[in-house]
Amino acid sequence: MTGLEPGSVVITRQAVDACFKPELEQMVLGKRVVRSTDLDQQLVQELMQCSTELGEFTTVVGNTMCTMDFYEGQGRLDGALCSYTEKDKQAYLQAAYAAGIRNIEMESSVFAAMCSACGLRAAVVCVALLNRLEGDQISSAHEVLVEYQERPQRLVGYFIKKRLGKA
């Protein structure tokens, strides 16, 4: 995502909305309900330690911005609808970077809010496929993308094995 080399793994400190707030707003029976999207900081630290032990790829801790759509919600210029300029996009992505956002996707806020509401410890681990400060299109070869998408799985797999005493 923002400011990272493709293939970098992001362990999410907080899942935030498109206004950079750590909350999920949803409508329940016609009423606005706001839920916290806090994730387990001990898990964040343990996952980062596991990545250091693996030493296979760049890993950072940062916020993940969860948007409602892939195009305008993520500041892309290549969708069917686009109501802003490249300059507007860059200003928004720079503000996101300043707010600690290192990843953009569309699922983490719901996951974090539901886990938090149920009292479950949770973490979000993603991989950056491109640096959004440099463009909207993925240019890496298919084989490279396949390897990138395996990185979060390898990290979480190592974490699980370590927890089970098998690493």
UniProtKB/TrEMBL annotation:
One of its GO terms (molecular function) is uridine phosphorylase activity. Gene3D superfamilies: Nucleoside phosphorylase domain (3.40.50.1580). Pfam families: PNP_UDP_1. One of its GO terms (cellular component) is cytosol. Signal peptide: none annotated. The lineage of its organism: Eukaryota, Metazoa, Chordata, Craniata, Vertebrata. The gene is UPP1. This is Uridine phosphorylase 1 isoform X3. InterPro entries: Nucleoside_phosphorylase_d, Nucleoside_phosphorylase_sf. GO terms for biological process: uridine catabolic process. Residues 3-160 form the Nucleoside phosphorylase domain.
